[in-house]
Amino acid sequence: MTSVAVVGAGISGLVAAYRLRQSLGPTARIVVVEKAPRIGGKLRSVDLAGGPVDVGAEAFIARRPEVPALLDELGLADQLVRPSPAARPLLRSGGALHGLPTGTLMGIPATSDSVRTLVDDATCRRIDTDRDRPLRWTPGDDASVGDLVSERFGSQVTARSVDPLLGGVYSGLAVTTSIRAALPTLAAALDAGAPSLVDAVERARPTSAPGPVFGGLRGGYGVLLDALLAASGAELVAADVRRVTSDDRGAWHVDGVGTVDGVVLAAPAPQTVSMLLDTAPALARELGGVELASSAVVALGFEDGGLPQNSGVLVATGELDSSGVPLRAKAFTLSSRKWPHLAERGGQLVRVSFGRFGDADIVDRPDADLVSAARTDLHEVLGVDEEPTTTFVQRWYGGLPQYRPGHTDLVARVEDAASAVRRLELAGAYLHGVGVPACVATASAAAARLADALA
Ligand SMILES: Cc1cc2nc3c(=O)[nH]c(=O)nc-3n(C[C@H](O)[C@H](O)[C@H](O)COP(=O)(O)OP(=O)(O)OC[C@H]3O[C@@H](n4cnc5c(N)ncnc54)[C@H](O)[C@@H]3O)c2cc1C
């Protein structure tokens, strides 16, 4: 009987276990090892204000096929919900609210029209004359998004348009985020010889496909996690895996499981490094280069709240309140405006997000301080002063791996080293995209390689 262990019961590990069941058949022994008292990792649905609410990831890119396809396979197609098209996102910049710039690539404009209300006239002129200045780029290069955008358009575009969008996805800043890893279509346009940044952005922007960009789950991500675990038929074992080692005959030894024929490691990079220190030191060394950003989400329930009809507000870098004190929140999701299925429950729900790479101290504050900071900033940005009926604080230590410049080369070296290790595969958000659809794709590919190796 074939036996495999999957370390980590986040979305990556659970998808790997489910795909392994599909490939290896009903008799295989599949064990999922998880050190936390619950499955899901960075996905967590809690009961709040009348039903399940996601306090980690709350959406996915629905134009990628992975999550809708997975929901279909698992008989959960009716769980797929879409955000309200009428509720548009806002941006807080320069002490005022603006519509989120349109026609950009992650906030990088192709014309000054996209950001005219956010930046000064000199910056608009720089964008409009970008084609007059030669762009230096060697194919295969990488740099931070912030360095390139600030060099071409100036720092206002970076702080007011790009940072808020990248910060929402990576908990990073434009200056710490790789062009090649985070914006691969932009890197491809630059490699192909785009003569200016505006030309590269024009080529790299996604063509507007029909239908909403995002999707979510009516019952929260918890529904998908439970369905994956059930469909995988895996044993769930509670253990903190410190080391995985292989013996002369190629069998793997995993803490809490014993001996198995193959392993998928689906834990975050730092824990994976520890597990591999003895067995694959070169691989562990490469993987040690991945840094993480911590964040916190404060959910606030209100009877009314007096919220605007918008889906949320992103905050520009360096925003101050009316007395000159920096805002701590980086984003507000007006969940009950954004998601019709949450609006149906009555009341209003807001998620306030804190924490960017290099600014993790806020995450260590006591709950009361985080709730207080959330309410203060919500009052400053949207004028909400109602007492919340419910509060919930969720900290995400090491919530998101950082895709620093050079990340794609680092991943290539890691995967090259991993391919030399027999019947061991890696999955997780640090490899080929932090979003849930990317994690599903990476884990499915890892499971397919392991099943091939075991065949
Ligand atoms: C606040 C926040 C909001 C986000 N929003 C979105 C969003 O809206 N849309 C989107 O697509 N993505 C979003 N993301 C990203 C996405 O949620 C994550 O990238 C993804 O869930 C990571 O899944 P994973 O399985 O790779 O890793 P994880 O979720 O980190 O799972 C790894 C698991 O391994 C376990 N583990 C670790 N070490 C060990 C060990 N030694 N032994 C046993 N088990 C171990 C952990 O306990 C954990 O359960 C968000 C992330 C955060 C933090």
UniProtKB/TrEMBL annotation:
Residues 11-450 form the Amine oxidase domain. Transmembrane segments: none annotated. InterPro entries: Amino_oxidase, FAD/NAD-bd_sf, Zeta_carotene_desat/Oxidored. Its EC number is 1.3.3.4. Pfam families: Amino_oxidase. NCBIfam families: PRK11883.1-1. This is Oxygen-dependent protoporphyrinogen oxidase. The lineage of its organism: Bacteria, Bacillati, Actinomycetota, Actinomycetes, Mycobacteriales.
